[in-house]
Design goal:
single chain, mainly beta, Trefoil (Acidic Fibroblast Growth Factor, subunit A), Jelly Rolls, six-stranded antiparallel barrel, five-stranded antiparallel β-sheet, 2 helices, 8% helix, 41% strand, disordered N terminus, binds 2-acetamido-2-deoxy-beta-D-glucopyranose, signal, Ubiquitin3-bd_protein_But2_C, PIR1-like_C
Length: 329
Amino acid sequence: MKSIFVSAALVAAADALIARDSTCCFHLTASGGPGGIVGQLSDGQNRIGQGMLILYIVCLPGAQYCIDSKGGLTDQSGRGCILTPPTTQFQCDQGASPTDGFSVSCDGTLSFKGNTEFKSCPTGDNGGYNIYTTAPAGQGGCVSVKLSADSCKSGCPAPAPAPAPAPKTCPAALTGTYEYPHLIVPVDSKQPDKAFGTQYNGTVSGSVSSLFNFDIPTSDNGKTCSLVFLFPQKQNLETSSFAFSGTGGIDFAMLKGPASSSTTYNNRPGVGTGYGVTKVAPGNSYTIATFPCPGGSAIGFDLSTSDDTMLSYFQDYNPSPIGLYITVC
Ligand SMILES: *[C@@H]1O[C@H](CO)[C@@H](O)[C@H](O)[C@H]1NC(C)=O
């Protein structure tokens, strides 16, 4: 009776093996620990690090595994690969039904039930390492390895294109190409029809704001422009000076057009783009805005305050530069 059951079981196992469609075959290479081709001892134990021995004995560069639709592996000798209980050692046994649940990811990484980490533990036999899904208790020297298949990978989709780089900001210093204002005109809401004409000073205080014109050369087309406000310490100024008091809140805005020497508070260009309030203090440089350089045009900016700030400075690019500039990069 017993022998009949055994042969029936063997036939069933053989049928199961045949019923599985071995669709795709590959070799495995380990990385992360003791690397190298995964080979096999003649008894079907899968090993890393005994490549020469395996080469000598079975004349194979490495074991070959075929994966079926359920994720079961069968080796080149038709042995089902299992995770032997209780140690979870990865080996291929004659007559064994393969353990399901392996898969080869798009980049070729072998996983078991979604886990790509295997344990590789020294055997003490010719420098070889056995492979487990879980390091056996009491087994020392185990390291994590990944196993890569040289075939059966579908190829991973190309990574999504990198997001467009944020617009770079040009230096808040006059270290490269820069533009300085060609016109500075104060306007005063308390004298709304008075044209003060062009000045050397930028003045921001109470009812007074200052308009700055920049002429951007055509050669700056396609480049990036940063509006910067440089406000050094007084002791670093050689040819300039400033008077400053109050909170330091300055409202920067790009105007819809440039000013002229006859601009007054009442006829000044409207605000195109407001940049909000920047709180300024001596000893600092500020990048107010960055935009594509409008090469070949004149653009205007307005500096005003709605708090107790009082600033009057002599716009000067001599060391240390002070005032409103456009740096180009
Ligand atoms: C310009 O600013 C400097 C420094 O604050 C000051 O000494 C000078 O009087 C100002 N000039 C005018 C015309 O306001």
